[in-house]
Amino acid sequence: MRARVSQDRFVSYTSLFTSFGTLVCCALPSVLVLIGLGATVASFLSAAPWLVTLSRNKEWVFAISGALIALNFVYVYRVAPRLRAAGEACPIDERTACSTADTVSRVTLWTSAVIYVVGFFAAFILGPLLVRFG
């Protein structure tokens, strides 16, 4: 039981941090340059040079992040309800704790998904749109 809860938390937080990573490495610099803050991006990259490596491999970063978020959606909306229905997920005496954990998991998941979509838009769609519409 505890292993499933800790595994659920691990997947939720991993998807949140990977989606945040895609935002920081790929989307945020693009948006900052777009609004004229190129010097800010340059100083930020000099302070955190590892972001250059992440942005060079943004396809992999987004693919891994997207896969983790998709797996988390499957877990939260398919696997977890089946475990609760079978009585394997929540002990009878801890129903409120399970309800709270479920709410936190869903909020974390949707936050991750929104961050991912914003990052994906800025990293892959915004640039070609700006080039096309000049």
Q: Can you put this structure into words, describing what you see?
A:
The protein is an all-alpha fold and 134 residues long. It has one domain (2-132). Helix content is 87%, strand content 0%. It is built from five helices and no strands. The chain has helices spanning 2-34, 38-47, 50-56, 58-85, 95-132. Helix 1 (2-34) runs antiparallel to helix 4 (58-85).
Task: Summarize the SSE layout with pairings.
Elements: H1 2-34, H2 38-47, H3 50-56, H4 58-85, H5 95-132
Number of domains: 1
Q: Report the order of strands and helices.
A: HHHHH
Give the N-to-C terminal Cα separation.
Answer: 56 Å
Q: What portion of residues belong to β-strands?
A: under 5%
Q: Please tally the helical runs, counting DSSP H or I stretches of 4 or more residues.
A: 5
Q: What value does the average pLDDT take?
A: 78
Main sheet record: none
The residue ranges in which pLDDT falls below 50 over 5 or more consecutive positions are none
Radius of gyration: 19 Å
> What would you call the shape?
elongated
* Structure classification: mainly alpha
Strand segment count? 0
User: What's the helical proportion of residues?
Assistant: over 70%
